[in-house]
């Protein structure tokens, strides 16, 4: 099975472990990740704040390159890239004027932006092949975790059309598939502070501490994410978070591909588990999930 | 030689703005058979009609084409004028120059050319028109009312009081509908049951009303004035004549833990039950799904203890066919299930309830005797948050329309709560307060100003549980979208009003059109609000759109007047646009060969078999015959007939071919 792969900038920098774990899991599942040739920026934060045309032309260019490389689907692990690629595709498909303008900007002949490849996030992609994953599980992931989706994977619903907007469950299903338990909690899609991670860490501390508070109160052993920004806020900014917690916590934050990788028996090194700021230490035996009410 | 007159209407600027009407009239004069053609500003006006009448008389016209608007608009007007001038009304035809031409094309020579073609078609048609006589059909002066809520009750009473018999059919064991479940009603806070039950009793006692509860419409055949309604009377498993409503069976039934529908699942009922104490009729039904006898073959406790021996375990459903002349649809609504709202706890949080549950909590006849107690632990909630627009006006996840009643009942709920729990706090999250109605806005102001209900303008993003309390997160958009977090003991969702689950199926049974949300469609949104597109079927209440009680009652009375008006005529006049099977002199009798393909094609069961016999009674031929009372003039049989033996009056094959050949 061959699928297009767009890592984006985060996966080559702050979230190298996400890239490593996606590639390792793909290799273990015998999936050929074909990186989009000469990919460029997806147009997130800087572009879409400043220039509307640019914010659509950039992702359109990525998808155009993927299309020319003969890729029907593009897997993009980063939630921000996912959002931009989807949004760009949506705008081109629904607004003829925008499409014409982007064609001009990219200097491509009319019609070349027809039938752009399908954009998939990691959860969406893995959810398509549950049997393949289940067949390769060697050591069950017997832990109770909190699946945290963040804002970008499910919003805006009319564009993403992925999972239930207010209470997504697809990641929970994947964790259950590899033997894990998930808590039922209310902060699945609450804001973590997103790009304030760099400019205003106090905002991140305030918002992310609420997420962390609820996860620990419901006895999660780890938080599982699928977005580099969620990860860096909950992991890298733990000091700011803990400053606002009643009880400071050191529960680790894992990418969903790391969880699946562990269940597939991949090594910590190949999954990049050593790269986290909060060390990944999971209790040997899991506690039954407790519902706090 | 035909003498046809053509009258081209300007319709003000509507037609004359894009079509050269004078040129159309001039061109018409050159058409074969046309002896007179004029254009006029408003043909439908009194002088316009006089123009037509005078021309018919002076020029001795035997056919008229009015080139104006849609025949749906003014065909009756011009046909009446033609009749007054002394010619058969069916010799008057209309060319639609407005909807079919001027409104949909730009000004130009081609548009005028099309208008001339449209006139030419009708000239060719009118030359081949035959004088037709309207068909008179009898009316069955009995109405069928579907739904025994306040809409159906009011319609049934009004029709019966006009002297016409009514068959009132309700699917649940008692009439009363949603209104019987309400505690108090806005804007006067009078007790809902106190004002409703006298009406229910009146229905039961009325000599002209036949009440069928626990019954459903299976099929409706026929047409206005002459419907045949097939009704299934579900087996109550009780002999209603013997039962005296003593209630022993309910006390002795060993099954006790069935969620009570009337109390919205807040209490339990036995397997043999009367929905509520004031039920009409006050006779129990056996819930076959939950009864021990039907599950295991043993028990029959009710049968043993019934003092009048009224229990009938072997009773079967009865299917009856009734002749009725009109139908009133009053099947009501349902509210959106709480489980639809993932952000408000998906129905998993016990203390997040909907408005109907709150009505039962606040009702003196409810499970708590009118005391406000939250469902999870029975404690009196000290802070209740009301969320208006749960699902309504939510294009993304709910329904785009406004459910209309929620603003008012939320104000009422908050008010009732403050009256019953003096120290308690009520907070309402709202988008807009829509309180248009007599004394409605005053009612909301009273809730805010006198009863101290706190109104926060903003939407709630999430409700979740923390330390045994509900946390309501929202925004106050009047304070610069400041986030608000409230710790509440109970949350009440004003869930959207929706059409009944079986609304679509019912609409198809009755050939009534419906909107995308399955609400039944009225014939005209402004001018025909209680009629449907199916003649003889009328609408009342929330099956058409979300409505409150005063509006529902007004509409039900409106529908009743329509029915009474229909029944006040001795016979019905129908347009004679029907199919006819040809008849010829013996020995052919008819070009029909009796294959009866038409019979299987007819959607109205209007084709009958006619046996032609000689004097000795020997069968010579069996041919098709159209029942003029049932035929709707759709023409399906005409196109099916292999020998071209059937033709449609007023739209004959000859006429249609002539129209096609002239362009």
How would you explain this protein's 3D organization?
The complex is a heterodimer of chains A (293) and B (663). Chain A is an alpha/beta fold and 293 residues long. Chain A folds into 2 domains: 2-120, Up-down Bundle (Glutathione S-transferase Yfyf (Class Pi), Chain A, domain 2), CATH 1.20.1050.140; 137-275, 3-Layer(aba) Sandwich (Rossmann fold). Chain A is built from 14 helices and 8 strands. Chain A has helices at residues 16-28, 45-50, 52-68, 79-94, 96-106, 122-127, 130-136, 157-160, 170-177, 196-199, 201-217, 228-235, 238-243, 256-263, and strands spanning 2-5, 32-35, 73-75, 118-120, 144-147, 181-182, 222-225, 253-255. Chain A has a 4-stranded parallel sheet, sandwiched between helices. A 4-stranded parallel sheet of chain A has the order 6-5-7-8, sandwiched between helices. Chain B has 663 residues and is of the alpha/beta class. Chain B folds into 5 domains: 4-132, Rossmann fold; 143-234 and 317-332 and 502-567, FAD/NAD(P)-binding domain, CATH 3.50.50.60; 248-305, no CATH class; 334-498, 3-Layer(bba) Sandwich (FAD/NAD(P)-binding domain); 579-661, 2-Layer Sandwich (Alpha-Beta Plaits). Chain B has 18 helices and 34 strands. A 5-stranded parallel sheet of chain B has the order 10-7-6-18-29, with helices on one face. A 5-stranded parallel sheet of chain B has the order 20-27-21-22-23. In chain B, helix 6 (150-161) packs parallel to helix 15 (549-567) and helix 11 runs parallel beside helix 12 (406-420). The radius of gyration of chain B is 32 Å and the shape is globular. The mean pLDDT of chain B is 94. Classes of the chains: A alpha/beta (293), B alpha/beta (663). The interface between A and B is small, with 12 and 11 residues.
């Amino acid at each position: 099975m061959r699928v297009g792969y767009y890592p984006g900038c985060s996966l080559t920098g702050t979230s190298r472990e996400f890239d490593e774990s996606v590639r390792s899991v793909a290799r273990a599942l015998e999936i050929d990740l074909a990186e989009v040739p000469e990919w460029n920026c997806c147009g997130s934060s800087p572009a879409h704040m400043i220039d509307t045309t640019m914010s659509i032309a950039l992702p359109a260019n990525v998808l155009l390159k993927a299309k020319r490389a003969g890729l029907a689907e593009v897997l993009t692990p980063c939630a921000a890239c996912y959002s931009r690629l989807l949004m760009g595709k949506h705008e081109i498909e629904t607004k003829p004027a925008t499409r014409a303008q982007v064609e001009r900007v990219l200097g491509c002949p009319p019609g070349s932006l027809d039938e752009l490849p399908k954009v998939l996030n990691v959860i969406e992609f893995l959810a398509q092949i549950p049997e393949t994953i289940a067949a390769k599980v060697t050591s069950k992931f017997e832990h109770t975790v909190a699946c945290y989706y963040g804002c970008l994977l499910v919003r805006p619903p009319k564009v993403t059309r992925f999972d239930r907007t207010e209470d997504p469950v697809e990641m929970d299903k994947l964790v259950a598939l590899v033997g894990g338990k998930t808590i039922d909690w209310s902060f699945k899609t609450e804001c973590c502070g997103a790009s304030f991670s760099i400019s205003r860490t106090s905002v991140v501390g305030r918002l992310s501490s609420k997420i962390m508070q609820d996860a620990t109160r419901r006895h999660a052993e780890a938080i599982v994410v699928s977005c580099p920004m969620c990860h860096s806020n909950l992991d890298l900014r733990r000091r700011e978070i803990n400053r606002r917690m009643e009880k400071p916590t050191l529960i680790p934050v894992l990418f969903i591909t790391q969880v699946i990788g562990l269940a597939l028996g991949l090594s910590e090194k190949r999954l990049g588990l050593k790269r986290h700021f909060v060390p990944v230490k999971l209790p040997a035996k899991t506690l039954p999930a407790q519902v706090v009410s | 030689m035909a003498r046809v007159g053509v009258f081209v209407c300007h319709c003000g600027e509507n037609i004359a703005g894009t079509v050269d009407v004078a040129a159309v009239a001039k061109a018409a004069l050159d058409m074969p058979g046309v002896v007179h053609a004029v254009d006029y500003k408003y043909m439908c006006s009194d002088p316009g009609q006089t123009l037509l009448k005078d021309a018919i008389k002076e020029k001795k016209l035997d056919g008229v084409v009015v080139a104006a608007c849609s025949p749906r608009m003014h065909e009756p007007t011009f046909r009446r004028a033609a009749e007054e001038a002394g010619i058969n009304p069916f010799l008057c035809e209309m060319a639609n120059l407005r909807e079919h031409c001027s409104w949909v094309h730009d000004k130009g020579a081609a548009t005028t050319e099309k208008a001339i073609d449209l006139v030419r078609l009708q000239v060719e048609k009118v030359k081949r028109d035959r004088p037709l006589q309207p068909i008179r059909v009898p009316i069955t002066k009995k109405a069928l009312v579907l739904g025994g809520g306040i809409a159906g009750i009011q319609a049934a009473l009004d029709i019966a009081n006009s002297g016409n018999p009514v068959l009132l059919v309700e699917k649940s064991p008692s009439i009363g509908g949603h209104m019987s479940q309400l505690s108090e009603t806005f804007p006067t806070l009078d007790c809902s049951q106190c004002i409703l039950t006298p009406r229910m009793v009146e229905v039961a006692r009325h000599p002209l009303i036949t009440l069928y509860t626990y019954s459903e419409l299976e099929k409706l055949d026929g047409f206005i004035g002459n419907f045949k309604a097939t009704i299934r009377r579900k087996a109550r498993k009780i002999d209603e004549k013997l039962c005296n409503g003593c209630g022993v069976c309910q006390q002795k039934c060993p099954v006790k833990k069935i969620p009570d529908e009337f109390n919205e699942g807040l209490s339990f009922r036995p397997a043999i039950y009367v929905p509520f104490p004031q039920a009409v009729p006050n006779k129990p039904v056996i819930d076959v799904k939950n009864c021990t006898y039907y599950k295991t073959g043993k028990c029959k406790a009710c049968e043993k203890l019934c003092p009048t021996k009224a229990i009938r375990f072997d009773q079967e459903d009865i299917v009856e066919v009734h002749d009725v002349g009109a139908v009133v649809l009053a099947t009501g609504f349902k509210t959106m299930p709480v489980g639809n709202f993932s952000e408000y706890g998906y129905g998993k949080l016990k203390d997040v309830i909907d408005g109907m549950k709150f009505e039962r909590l606040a009702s003196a006849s409810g499970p708590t005797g009118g005391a406000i107690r939250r469902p999870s632990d029975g404690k009196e909630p000290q802070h209740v948050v009301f969320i208006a627009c749960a699902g309504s006006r939510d294009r993304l996840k709910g329904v785009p329309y406004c459910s209309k009643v929620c603003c008012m009942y939320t104000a009422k709920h908050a008010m009732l709560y403050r009256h019953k729990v003096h120290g308690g706090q009520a907070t309402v999250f709202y988008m807009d307060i829509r309180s248009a109605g007599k004394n409605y806005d005053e009612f909301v102001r009273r809730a805010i100003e006198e009863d101290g209900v706190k109104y926060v303008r903003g939407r709630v993003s999430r409700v979740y549980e923390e330390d045994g309390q509900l946390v309501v997160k929202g925004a106050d958009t009047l304070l610069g979208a400041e986030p608000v977090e409230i710790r509440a003991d109970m949350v009440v969702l004003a869930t959207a009003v929706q059409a009944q689950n079986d609304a679509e199926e019912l609409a198809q049974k009755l050939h009534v059109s419906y909107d995308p949300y399955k609400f039944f469609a009225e014939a005209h949104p402004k001018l025909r609000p209680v009629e449907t597109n199916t003649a003889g079927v009328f609408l009342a209440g929330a099956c058409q759109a979300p409505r409150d009680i005063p509006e529902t009652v007004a509409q039900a009375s409106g529908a009743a007047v329509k029915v009474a008006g229909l029944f006040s005529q001795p016979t019905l006049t129908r347009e004679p646009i029907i199919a006819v099977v040809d008849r010829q002199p013996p020995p052919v009798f008819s070009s029909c060969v009796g294959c009866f393909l038409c019979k299987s094609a007819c959607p109205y069961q209007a084709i009958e078999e006619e046996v032609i016999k000689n004097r000795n009674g020997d069968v010579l031929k069996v041919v098709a015959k159209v029942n003029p009372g049932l035929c709707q003039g759709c023409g399906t049989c005409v196109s099916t007939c292999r020998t071209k033996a059937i033709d449609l009056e007023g739209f004959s094959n000859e006429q249609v071919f002539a129209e096609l050949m002239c362009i």
